[in-house]
Structures are given as C-alpha cells and as structure tokens.
Design brief:
heterodimer; A: six-stranded mixed β-sheet; B: 11 strands
Chain lengths: ~110, ~120
C-alpha cells in the first residue's frame, strides 16, 4: 500500500529561522510530488510540484527537493514569518497512468512572533 | 477563473437525512476528484472522474455514498442516509490532463464543505 508520511505532526519555530519539513513515501516509482499549504478553514493551495525527473523546485523563500532513491522530499522555508503558519501537506502521484494523488497527514507549522 | 466552487460551505444535519454536496470544477479541467478530510485519517480520495466518467470509486466508504458528474461543469456527492461518522470536510478538486508544462499537472482544491451529522 502506498503511504506518505510527514513527521513531525506539529512544529513551532521562532520567526526568522530557516526550517525544513519532511515527507517520506514508500513507493520510489513516483510520477510527481507536490507540496500544499492549508490554512484553517480553507482548502489546499499548491506551493510547488516536482516531477520525478527533477531534483528540486524553488519559489521565493520556498525550496522543495526530491530524492526518489531514499523516498524522501523536503520543503525548505527560509527566513520564516508569522504568515507562514499553516499546515503543510505533501502528496505523491504514482505514475502517469495513475491519477490518484496520495496525501500525507501534514505538518502543522506555527511561527512564533 | 473563480476556481473550484463548492456548496454548501457548512451543513449540519440530523442522522438519517440525505446530504448532497455540490462542486463546480475549473472550466476546461478534465479531472474531478472528491476527497474527505478528518483529523484521524487525513485526506482520503473517495472517487475521481475523467471527462465526466467515474474512473475509480474504490475510496467510497460504503453504498450510502454516491457521486455523479452529469456534465463537465457540475458534480455531486450524496450521502444517504447520513451517519455521525460521516462528519468531515469534503473537498472537491480538479485539474487538466497531463501536459508538458508542470502547471498543467497541478491540482486545484475548493474551499471544502464542512459536514456535521448529529
């Protein structure tokens, strides 16, 4: 069974610090991996998508990496701000013939002012 | 584009009643997904459609759940009869078919329908 795991479930970090969120998956034959942000009471917003042929993607203060061989992805947030407080979820899609997207349970991030 | 639109945003209903959740995907998107989110189980895929055709409903919990997509711009998820354990946030999401541009592979979520069954 494909699984996506995110540890820790919750994280508190002082404002200004750089931080890394972790995501691990059991199936190395992935098509792509995506990071999402979810604010309380809201839907999910896509942050970064990494195709299996890529190793990383960057957008502003965010950088996502992908290591298929170890089954890991990380989301790096530089110079964290209180507005970054949210739940961050990673999701994998197994293959281009498989449309299912499997989500981790997320890491709830709190940036301390 | 207005994004994926879901209704109702919030619903409180009594056990045994029928619940209908509605979704309007982004125009031009070929795929539509229904997810359920709970604290215990996270986000679970219930069913998805491609070009209005149900492709995989293996995530639908039981026969009380049904989903339809009568046209490219509308889908419903129905629970009949509803039970307290159905209380969750139900998300609809859509995306285009795979494209070379990465943005074509992004999935877009609605704001969710918060269901409470008492």
């Amino acid at each position: 069974k494909q699984e996506v795991t995110q540890i820790p479930a919750a994280l508190s970090v002082p404002e200004g610090e750089n931080l890394v969120l972790n995501c691990s998956f059991t199936d190395s034959a992935i098509y792509n991996l995506q990071w999402f942000r979810q604010d309380p009471g809201k839907g999910l917003t896509s942050l970064l998508l990494i195709q299996s042929s890529q190793r990383e993607q960057t957008s502003g203060r965010l950088n996502a990496s992908l290591d298929k061989s170890s089954g890991r992805s990380t989301l790096y947030i530089a110079a964290s701000q209180p507005g970054d407080s949210a739940t961050y979820l990673c999701a994998m899609r197994r293959g281009n013939r498989d449309d299912k997207i499997i989500f981790g349970k997320g890491t709830r991030l709190h940036i301390l002012p | 584009d207005a994004g994926v639109i879901q209704s109702p945003r919030h619903e409180v209903t009594e056990m045994g009643q029928e619940v209908t959740l509605r979704c309007k995907p982004i125009s031009g998107h070929d795929y539509l997904f229904w997810y359920r989110q709970t604290m215990m189980r996270g986000l679970e895929l219930l069913i998805y459609f491609n070009n209005n055709v149900p492709i995989d409903d293996s995530g639908m919990p039981e026969d009380r759940f049904s989903a339809k997509m009568p046209n490219a711009s509308f889908s419903t998820l129905k629970i009949q009869p509803s039970e307290p354990r159905d209380s969750a946030v139900y998300f609809c999401a859509s995306r285009t078919r795979d494209r070379l541009l990465l943005s074509g592979n992004t999935i877009y979520f609605g704001e969710g329908s918060w269901l409470t069954v008492v």
